[in-house]
Design goal:
The protein has about 120 residues and is α/β, with parallel strands linked by helices. The protein has a single domain, classed as Rossmann fold. The chain contains 5 helices and 5 strands, in the order E-H-E-H-E-H-E-H-E-H. The protein has a 5-stranded parallel β-sheet with strand order 2-1-3-4-5, with helices on both faces. The longest helix is centred in the C-terminal third of the chain and has 16 residues.
Length: about 120
């Protein structure tokens, strides 16, 4: 199981990695801090799930999502501080599978990721 997190916040990346280490140690978490890097890793590393922030330094998470959808149907969970309905709907319309608003509960994040994996493998 490989999880790709695309987020420009080192603190968020570290929190997600620690959460997986503690509660789902068999999962491998890889990370990208820019959208372009995330797109490249999505293509070359074949993650099982992508956790994607919408506010990235180079391109938007929406753009990342659109580009990833050109070559992959990997489940994508949006993890962002943008909590308005417009952004949530836009993310889902662009191909996201779920949405969590920051600040987030790590147990909730892991539960949702496991559900996405279960729904795509089973």
């Amino acid at each position: 199981m490989k999880i790709l997190i695309v987020d420009d916040s080192k603190a968020i990346i570290e929190t997600v990695i620690l959460s997986f280490k503690l509660r789902w140690p068999e999962a491998t978490v890889i990370s990208a801090e820019t959208g372009q890097q995330g797109i490249g890793m999505a293509e070359t590393d074949s993650p099982s799930v992508i956790i994607l922030d919408l506010g990235l330094p180079d391109i938007t998470g929406f753009e990342v999502l659109q580009k990833v959808r050109l070559f992959s149907d990997v489940p994508v969970l949006i993890l962002t501080a943008r909590d308005d309905e417009t952004n949530i709907v836009k993310a889902l319309e662009h191909g996201a599978d779920d949405h969590i608003t920051k600040p987030f509960n790590p147990k909730d994040l892991l539960t949702r990721v496991k559900a996405l994996v279960r729904n795509t493998t089973g």
